[in-house]
Amino acid sequence: MLVLLVALAAGPAEILEAACVKCHDAGNRKGGLDLSTRQGLLTGGESGPAVVPGRSRESLLMRLVTHDDEPAMPRKADKLPPAEIAALARWIDGGVPYARTLVGRADPPHWAWAPLRPAGGSLPPGRGAVSRTLIRRATFDLWGLPPTSDDNERYEDLVDRLLASPHYGERWGRHWLDVARYADSEGFEDDGDRKHAYVYRDFVIRALNEDMPFDQFVRWQLAGDELAPEDPNALAATGFLAAGVSIKLNPTDSKENKEKHRYDELDDFVSTTGAAFLGLTVGCARCHDHKYDPITSRDYYALVAAFIGTEKRRELALGSAQREWEEFRQARRDEHRERRMAELAIPDEDRDLLRQSLHKNNPVQKKVFGKWDAKLQTMDDELALTPEQRVVWQSLERAAQAEGTTLRELAVTEAPLTPPAFLLARGEPRNKVATIAFALPAFLAGGKSLEAWGREVPRSSPRAVLAAWLTDVDQGAGRVLARVTVNRLWQHHFGVGLVDTPNDLGTQATPLRNPELLDFLAGELVRGGWRLKPLHRLIMTSAAYRQQRPLRRLEAETVRDAILAVSGTLNAAMYGPAVKPPIPAEAIASRSKYLTDEKDGPAVRRRTVYLFTKRSVRNPMLEVFDAPDATASCGRRTPTTVPTQSLALMNDASVRARARDFARRLEHETGRDRRRQIDRAFRLAFGRPPRAPERAGAARYLAHASLVDFCHALFLTNEFLYVE
Amino acid sequence: MMDRRQFLHTLASSALTAGRAAAAPSARSVIWLFMEGGPSAVDTFDPKPELKKHHGKRPKEAIETFFGRPGPLMQSPFSFQQHGGSGLWVCDRMPAIARHADELAVIKSCFAESPNHSPAMYQMNTGMTRAGFPSVGSWVTYGLGTDNKSLPGFVVFPNEAGSKGGPQNWGHGFLPGTFQATPFRTGGAPILNLSRPSDVGDQRALLDYAQSLNRDHRRRHGDEPDLEARMHSHELAYRMQSEGRKVADLTRETDETRRLYGIDRDVTRPFGSKCLMARRLVESGVRFVQLYSDGEWDSHGNLAQQHGQRCDETDVPIAGLLTDLKRCGLLDSTLVIWGGEFGRMPVSEQGQGRDHNPHGFLVWMAGAGIKAGVSHGETDELGYRAAVNPVSVNDLHATMLHLLGLDHRKLTYLHNGRRFRLTDVAGEVIRPVLS
Prior knowledge:
The complex is a heterodimer. Chain A is an all-alpha fold.
């Protein structure tokens, strides 16, 4: 017996623990089978006894592990090696001895969810001469614009200068706006304009320029309204949630249809949050447990519950001075109302009803209002104010007006009454299984209770808890957020990330190149207080960044911005309402109106990040160069090479107009000297002077062509459209 | 210059590696006549005697309408006759299409999910009621590429009044942008940016100069396929300026052909021009052409007038297209699809209109691989819900792909860690309508 026990310890037990017991233990009992004890093995499961002791050939377990019978075991894993199968057979023939209860061996956690490796990696700095290529690469990388000078600047100083410029936020803000599926309109057929959506876009650009710690950046976007309700910036940040599409439903729409669209909106909140911050395709679990990642349908609806009371805010939201003034004003109106009620000798019970706001389904109150309310209404100038009150009134009014921006249709808020959230079968609002409460995804949750999280946030709302958990490296999912974030950074610096699928770092992610580096960078981000700029500096001064790399085509916005910059007509004004450049009528195939009075003037020659993004009327120049359509979070654009891009570059009226501006600029800056014109043109377009044969070639072409055509030709070159 | 195969590979490498073959293809190309707004089944090809019998009465079953003002049952304002050997019923406002009754396979039991226009249109085009997924035409060009290198593979003629839900109806979703539809127009230049700027000198010389810089640049950067592809793309674009115009130039057709499509009459000219251009595109090797009807089938107020008007605009052009495809020998290789995003209610709305009905509506197909002169499935006796052999949008899509030789279960694209399909996890090929 002793011999057998030793044999088991060395062989079958480990095989079973590694391959089988995870699913077939007392807890899981897949197929009704528990292999963790001898009794469980002999009792068997739904398909009968798993073994016949002493007779391996007649044992179901053997037929399944040899794949002679269905279902082949172990499930979703490689077949056991022959030596292990033979060991199992010997064990069965030997009477299936158990020395102990077997415990399923859990897989090591997927790399994205594992604890961060202790600091150990590094990113060696680069040395050597600073080439024009490197200057051009760094400038496009941080600004999305061509370089403005090639002075003898130390490379480290160049990087610092680029990072300090507000162009940095415009460039990297645009990267984030892709992830946030940001647009300036509602989507669907009405696709009404969101005239104030830009407040969120401005928040993003400002936050990046100020190097707001990324954990705060994330927390505010998820729950700024809860975490810092007095701060207009925190409210603006929640435009992240509000940025998704919204359908305009008819009041008479069926309840079923309204509910379906509400769950679509909730899915947008949950899926975007998962993709943007956790690199998780949470949305897959809307209809069934995730097929690959350990997210159950229950996890999904428990996250939906975090947003169940979250509504896009459309009413006027007031700043603190405005609120103060409004409160003061309301108090004076209430006093006036009381005086009038006394004058009119309204009965006491009616007065009580008149003091409350009118409820539509209170017939008694409605009747009372019908009788009196008109007589109680008053204009502001009819209020009898004391001189002291008048002074306060005026100063508050001035302060409120000075506060400026009112926040509308850009943020989210919590409904006063939180409706129940439901677990839906197959994602169907018709198939409500049970109500469900907010919970963190089990496989990432960590040990801390929701109550404990709740005590750490100013309002213990689920969204605030979610935000706190997401950004906590020690007890929450902060390590995952850090990995997702540095991977995005790496991707935008190098064209490809350390993982190619930036919105999916789950088990289906593409293979991770260099795990040590990812964890090193994630650790650096956390150690550096979640500030991005030091990380940009670290990456950009590294040897890896400075060596030669494959070419990358400029993104849609960068193509347009570079053309504007080279032609000398870029309007560098920042922030504010989005601008609608003219779009040719024949390019509009939507029912929704695209109204603009703008002509091709300085007002529309802003950086592309400030252009109005109408979901159903896409700017043809940007669409053709693969700008995302803002329907869902986009972590990575797919660059294409199609002839309609060439047509746009050859024939688009605004491209041609910029070629004319470019030519005028050359004449203005260099006079009529051909050689100087050519030199200047090459420097502006390519960041380098022409080589001698190029100078000669340009002169030959210019002998028969206009300077405008020459300038236009440069826009069609790969050297202009690609960065090394 | 890079050779064409290499160029195509650059464009569509992902498609070339995707397993996707089904049976031998019946169809080489598709013309989809999208009747935007939702044409009514009971007023076009599927009359219901019960509606006549109970006209003006309240239905027994509660009817859930979109705008929530269901009236009594309403008989069709049109009269019907049976046509051809198949005996297909066709309303008297489609006399020209009626002559093709024996070429159509009418699927009378379609159902969809949404009673709202744009989600329903997204579903009919992409399988999903939300925007952002690849449209059928994108999937097809991803799976099959295109046969004409001077024209795009997927062309759409939008509703002149603007299509509800906009370009996401023919978007590429998560597929590469290469598979996005190129919107065409009738009249003038068919594609955006096809006309040269008026002040450009010799554009060929301009391009030659740019390409000479590109050649030098490529020499300095050896192994970069995208540089080749872009140089090729410039040349293709240059050729499209003339090719695109040529294919759009309907004056190259005979008067007889233009009359066949109704281009000689104001009422039929717009849709007739789209139909004739569709034939010319398919003839030139374009894979997938989708034409949206102009104006609305969305007849809430006065169905007789609104549907009547749409019939008048499209009847002759569609019949002309079928006739012309047949005589050119193209009907054998072209799948023609007619239908909207949903149908309409058997009850009246505002007295003489009908509300949206996603529960039961019809689509017909004709041409390559289609069994001519059959009908498949039925709605209930009022035409409210699909009752016999219900056909989902996934089923319609599976059938379209099948006819093109693509297996809807195998045409996949890896996105966000999962292999996506046009038909998600459902869809059955509708065998009874296949020849």
